[in-house]
Write a structure and sequence with these properties.
alpha/beta, two-stranded antiparallel ribbon, 206 residues
Length: 206
C-alpha cells in the first residue's frame, strides 16, 4: 500500500470480504493519472461495499470508486491511491415496475443496458450522458448529461437526498419506493429512479 498507516490491510484481508477472484493487485490499466493502486476490489453487494470501505477507512487508505472509467479524467489528480473499488459486479436491474414508472438498478449497470431493459415497456431513463458506456453510478457522481437535460433535468436533479456513507457508520435506510414523478407519463416516457423527497428522508438512521 502507498499508505504509511501502521497495520495496513493485506490483499488477503480484502479477498476475505469479496472472495479471492474479486480482489487483486493493481496494474497499469487501473492507474488514475499515472497513480497505480495497490489493490483493486470488486464487491458484489452493498454489504461487501460497506466492509471494504470500513477496512480501508480504519487504515487511512485512499479509496476511489470506479465503474466503466469514462469520467476518470474529471477532477484533480490524486496525490495517492491505495484501493480502487470497482463496481463491475454491481450491474443488476433490481426492480422495474412499469405501471408505477419506477426502476431500481445497481450503480455498476451501464446506462445502455438499462435502456434495453426498459424499451419493451416503451419506457426510458431520461439521462443521455456523453459516453455510451457510462454506468449509472458514474452518471450520478459526475452529473453527466446531454441535450435531454433541458427537458428532464440532470441526474442530480432527480436524486433522492441521502446522507454520505462514512467508514464507520451504518448504511442509511430509506423508503423502499419513490412516488412517480411529474415527468413520468404513459407511452415512451422516462421512469423515475429518484424523486426529491422531504428533508426527513435524508436523515441517517442506523
Amino acid at each position: 500500500m502507498t499508505s504509511s498507516a501502521a497495520g495496513a490491510p493485506s490483499l488477503g484481508d480484502f479477498q476475505s470480504i469479496v472472495g479471492e477472484p474479486h480482489a487483486r493487485p493493481g496494474g497499469s490499466a487501473d492507474a488514475l493519472d499515472d497513480v497505480t493502486p495497490a489493490v483493486v476490489v470488486e464487491p458484489g453487494s452493498v454489504e461487501e461495499i460497506c466492509e471494504v470501505v470500513r477496512l480501508a477507512g480504519r487504515a487511512g487508505l485512499a479509496l476511489v470508486a470506479r465503474g466503466a472509467g469514462t469520467k476518470m479524467g474529471c477532477g484533480n489528480p490524486p496525490s495517492r491511491l491505495d484501493v480502487v473499488l470497482h463496481t463491475r459486479r454491481l450491474n443488476r436491474l433490481l426492480e422495474h415496475s412499469a405501471g408505477d414508472l419506477v426502476v431500481r438498478a445497481q450503480a455498476g449497470m451501464p446506462i445502455a443496458d438499462l435502456q434495453r431493459e426498459l424499451a419493451p415497456a416503451h419506457q426510458m431513463l431520461a439521462f443521455d450522458p456523453p459516453h455510451a458506456g457510462a454506468t449509472l453510478g458514474g452518471i450520478v457522481a459526475a452529473d453527466a448529461s446531454g441535450p435531454q437535460r433541458l427537458r428532464y433535468g440532470t441526474a442530480r436533479d432527480w436524486r433522492t437526498p441521502r446522507c454520505g456513507r462514512g467508514s464507520s457508520s451504518a448504511w442509511p435506510r430509506r423508503r423502499a419506493r419513490s412516488a412517480p414523478s411529474a415527468w413520468c407519463r404513459p407511452g415512451f416516457g422516462p421512469c423515475s429512479p429518484w424523486r426529491p423527497s422531504p428533508p426527513e428522508s435524508s436523515r441517517c438512521r442506523g
